[in-house]
User: Which sequence fits this backbone?
C-alpha cells in the first residue's frame, strides 16, 4: 500500500498532524499543535489562541533543536536554540529535551505559546500542566506513527 520512495525520503510520506486542545484549567485558552513525525526526527510547532485575541499579536516565538544522547538514552539531551525569544525559549527548550529523551529522536520545537491568558495568568503550575498535556499528545502520536511503520 505505502509507496516506497527510493531516494531516501520518508516512506510513507509523513503527513503533518494538526490538533488543538484547551489548557487543562483554562478552557478559553487553546494550545494548537502542528506535528510531523518523521522516521528520523520530530518537528513540532506550538501556539495558543485565547478567547480574548485582541491582545498583542502573537510573536514568532522560539525554535529549538534537541538531540538525544545515543550512548546513554537517559542522559539529558543536548539542545540548541535556533531562534530565541525570551518569553518562549524556556518552554521550547524543556519540551524539546523531554521529547528527544522520551522518543529517542532528534526533535525540533517551534513555540509561541502564551500562558498569559490562562486562569492564573500563566503560573509555573499552569505551564507544567500545559507541557504535560503536550508531551502526552505527542508521545501518543509518535507511538501511532511507529506502529504504522512496523505494520507495513
Ligand atoms: C552522553 O551521556 C554520557 C553519559 O552520561 C556522557 O558521558 C556523554 O558525554 C554524553 N554525550 C553527549 C553527546 O552528550
Assistant:
Amino acid at each position: 500500500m505505502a509507496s516506497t520512495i527510493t531516494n531516501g525520503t520518508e516512506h510513507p510520506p509523513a503527513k503533518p498532524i494538526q490538533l488543538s486542545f484547551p489548557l487543562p484549567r483554562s478552557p478559553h485558552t487553546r494550545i494548537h499543535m502542528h506535528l510531523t513525525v518523521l522516521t528520523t526526527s520530530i518537528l513540532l510547532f506550538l501556539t495558543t489562541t485565547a478567547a480574548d485575541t485582541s491582545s498583542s499579536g502573537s510573536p514568532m516565538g522560539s525554535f529549538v533543536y534537541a538531540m538525544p544522547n545515543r550512548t546513554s538514552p537517559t542522559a539529558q539531551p543536548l539542545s540548541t536554540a535556533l531562534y530565541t525569544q525570551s518569553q518562549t525559549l524556556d518552554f521550547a527548550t524543556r519540551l524539546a529535551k523531554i521529547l528527544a529523551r522520551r522518543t529517542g529522536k532528534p526533535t525540533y520545537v517551534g513555540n509561541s505559546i502564551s500562558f498569559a491568558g490562562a486562569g492564573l495568568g500563566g503560573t509555573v503550575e499552569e505551564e507544567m500542566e500545559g507541557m504535560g498535556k503536550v508531551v502526552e499528545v505527542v508521545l501518543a502520536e509518535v507511538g501511532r506513527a511507529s506502529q504504522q511503520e512496523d505494520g507495513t
The mean pLDDT is 86. Strands lie at 17-23, 26-37, 42-50, 62-67, 78-83, 107-112. The chain has two helices and six strands. The longest helix spans residues 124-151.
